[in-house]
Design brief:
mainly alpha; 74% helix
């Protein structure tokens, strides 16, 4: 049985405390008036005034818009990290279900690690929905389509109100999270029961296979809709038919990477002695392959929109290239070029420290990717990686570590009752 180390527990709690203090500072330092917002920005962002009544009106509108962006900043930082860590857990759940449905033999020794990571899905999902509810109650302006005054004066948003309305939106959110969590609950339950049954009784294994196959259908539909609702609708004027797959690729590769990082950590601390270099090599192959897949989807989305040159679509990328130049191109280096160069070598995929180094870069790169998805529409050019952003990341990182490693203590780290466990333990190539 795994024991949650005291040092790791303290580390996670310290991260949460520091992160909470950073978030608190971010909310307290946000401006409450237009004058404060103008004072907080440089003259480059707000300095030109126009004479007469028209100028005053434009000035007033700009000031109000600026205030909303600066007030959104701590909320957006909170939402980016909340969604990112929930996304990791959901990506791992999808990978776990695929292994179950495919009857994969190599990955059995990693099941308990995956189940530990997916334990974060319920609290992480509840936090994300709580932020969405607060947005619906007008505590922030992250989702402008939730503001009746904006909808009344915006024909594009008004035409989408049959789908983008609060009752339907929250009904979908609860439905999605309930389905994901229920699958995780029953799959975990059947997995633990299988450990307690005689070796000739694989009834719980069969149940897990059936619900995993059914869940994957549910997952691929709900994940796409979730990405439209929780991310793409922040900018309700823009849409992309590839966006659901793009978000899936991001959460999938990040989830697999986190599996590799936690597995290596546990192995280096004397656990998971049944995990060998071939298992790590396979995880490295998935990290490499899905990074390429993510890049393909990113380029497909970018190229089609850029080539078509339709103003309401291309604005999405223009904003990010002009105002988010460094994080926009930086995450391409971190999510594609770096993994490509390092993990292309087959031998490197068996070296733990290389997997760890590459994995950390991938995780940070995809955090920046989520940052690029949300921040431009929420705060415009008023972005930064400051106290709010760092604090939010630290808080959710600490919470994620605490929940995951605490869950690992609740069951043996080997799913010994699985009919393919011997194949997994002896897996070499």
């Amino acid at each position: 049985m795994y024991t949650f180390p005291k040092r790791l527990k303290i580390f996670s709690l310290v991260c949460m405390i520091i992160g909470l203090l950073g978030l608190t500072y971010g909310f307290l330092s946000a401006p409450s008036t237009i004058e404060e917002a103008i004072e907080m920005t440089s003259s480059d962002h707000y300095g030109e005034t126009v004479s007469h009544d028209e100028g005053h009106e434009k000035d007033s509108n700009h000031g109000e818009h600026l205030l909303h962006k600066l007030q959104n900043k701590p909320w957006a930082a909170l939402y980016v990290s909340a969604f990112f860590f929930m996304m990791i857990s959901l990506g791992v759940l999808a990978f776990y279900a695929i292994q179950r449905a495919a009857q994969a033999g190599w990955s059995i020794v990693l099941y308990r690690v995956m189940e530990g990571i997916t334990a974060y899905l319920l609290p992480g999902g509840i936090i994300v929905i709580a932020i969405l509810v607060l947005s619906g109650l007008h505590f922030n302006h992250l989702f402008i389509w939730m503001d009746p005054e904006v909808v009344a004066h915006d024909e594009i948003i008004r035409n989408k109100s049959g789908y983008l309305n609060l009752p339907f939106f929250f009904a979908r959110a609860i439905f999605f999270l309930s389905g994901w969590v229920l699958y995780r609950y029953f799959s975990r339950k059947f997995s633990l029961k299988q450990d307690l049954t005689p070796s000739n009784d694989i009834s719980n294994h069969k149940k897990n296979f059936k619900i995993s196959a059914a869940f994957l259908v549910f997952y691929f539909v709900t994940e796409s809709v979730m990405s439209w609702d929780w991310v793409m609708s922040i900018d309700p004027h823009w849409f992309s038919t590839l966006f659901g797959w793009y978000v899936f690729a991001s959460m999938f590769v990040t989830g697999i990477t986190v599996i590799a990082l936690i597995t290596i950590y546990l192995k280096n601390n004397g656990y998971l002695d049944f995990v060998n270099d071939s298992h790590i090599h396979d995880l490295g192959k998935f990290m490499f392959a899905i990074s390429i897949f993510w890049t393909y989807l990113w380029f497909s989305q970018f190229m089609l929109i850029w080539y078509a040159n339709i103003p309401e679509e291309v604005t999405y990328f223009m904003t990010r290239i002009e105002d988010y130049n460094l994080p926009f191109f930086g995450m391409l280096v971190m999510n594609f070029i770096f993994p490509l160069i390092i993990l292309m070598n087959s031998d490197y995929k068996r070296v733990n420290y290389i997997i760890v180094m590459t994995g950390i870069v991938i995780v940070i790169g995809h955090y920046i990717d989520v940052f690029n998805m949300i921040m431009p529409s929420a705060v415009g050019d008023q972005w930064s990686i400051g106290i709010s952003e760092i604090g939010s990341f630290l808080f959710f990182f600490g919470l994620f570590v605490y929940i995951v490693f605490n869950e690992l203590t609740k069951a043996p780290l080997l799913a010994k009752g699985d009919p393919f466990v011997k194949e997994s333990e002896q897996y070499h190539y």
